[in-house]
Structure formats: structure tokens, C-alpha cells
Amino acid sequence: MKNIRRFAVILMICMLLMACGDNGANGAGTGSESASVAAEYPPMGVKDLDAFLAANKGTPVMLMFWTTWCPSCKEAVPELEKLSQAYNDKVKILAVSLDESKDALDAFFAKKKLDLPVYHGDQAIAQKFGVEAIPTLLMFDKNGKQVFGQPGVFPYEMLKIMADKLMAQ
Predict the structure, then answer these.
(1) What's residue 61's pLDDT?
(2) In 3D, which of 66, 149, 142, 45 has the Cα closest to residue 108?
(3) What is the pLDDT of residues 52-81, one digit of tens each?
(4) Exposed (0-12), middle (13-18) or buried (19+): which is 38, by Cβ within 10 Å?
């Protein structure tokens, strides 16, 4: 019963966020530059992340779950992008969209491009890490072990401190 109530609350919050989210009314993109952009968003399921962490052993990883319709995510993603530019390959930084379709990503990135690897996640990966709110930031040490997982918007300076601690471990 507790899980059903929790699910209902999360569903209501998601619906409220969708209603309050930016529906593209203030964007300037025409959408024509997004032809076949969906191929740029590889899938990121549980096995895909396990493979990514194994392939990048020795390098810390920061991963943020987000969606294109989430106002808080629209604040968090640029902070993560700035961190990615500052740290290059010292820390692998990924954005995993939990949007239902890649069409939402196409529409979002028709307005703004990111200099950040963007993946399209599924519900199984969100469930594995207990994602109940977005954005949610996860951090993995150099051995691929999760050392942090918290929802919220983290400013660049805080992300920088976290990345420095990850690299020092």
C-alpha cells in the first residue's frame, strides 16, 4: 500500500511538472536542423551503464538523470555541461534522459545543442538507482562503484568540488 501511495504522489508531481514545463513556446528553433538527430542519443539501460563503467574503469563518472520538460533539469544540465568542458576526460560526465521518446530530445536540441554526451535511458535504469525525482545526480568512483546519488540542482562550484573529490579517491 505504501508503494502505491508513493507511486501516486510521484505520478501527480510528474504531471504537475509537465503542466508547468516549457512547451517550446519561447524557443527559436525551427526543428529542421534536428533531422534524424535521434541517432545521437544511444540507449542507456542497466547493462549499457555496466558496460560503460567497465570500459571507463580508472575514471570517475558523474551521471545525471533528467527530462526535457523538467524546469529544474533545464537549470541543472548547463551546470553539468560547464563541468564537462572544464574536466574534459578527467571525469566522464553523462546526461541520461528519461523522456518517453527520442522525439522530445530532438525537439529540445533543435533549440540548443549540448557539448555533453546525452543518452536515452529507460525505466529499468531509473528503478535500479531508485530515481524518484529529477534531476538526480549519481557519482561512481574510479572502480565503477556508486558513491553518491541525490536528486536536485547542483551549482557548478559544488559539482567542481564533487569532481575533485572523485578524482582524489
Answers:
(1) 97
(2) 66
(3) 999 999 999 999 999 999 999 999 999 999
(4) middle
Kindly give the pairing relationship between strand 43-44 and strand 146-151.
unpaired
Q: What is the pLDDT of residue 4?
A: 53
Q: Which residue has the cell 545525471?
A: 64
Mean pLDDT across 126-136: 95
Residue type, 34: S
How far apart CA 76 and CA 69 sit, in angstroms, is 13
Q: Report the amino acid identity of residue 125.
A: I
Ranges of H-type helices in 2-146: 2-20, 46-55, 71-87, 102-111, 123-128
Burial class (CB in 10 A: 0-12, 13-18, 19+), 151: middle
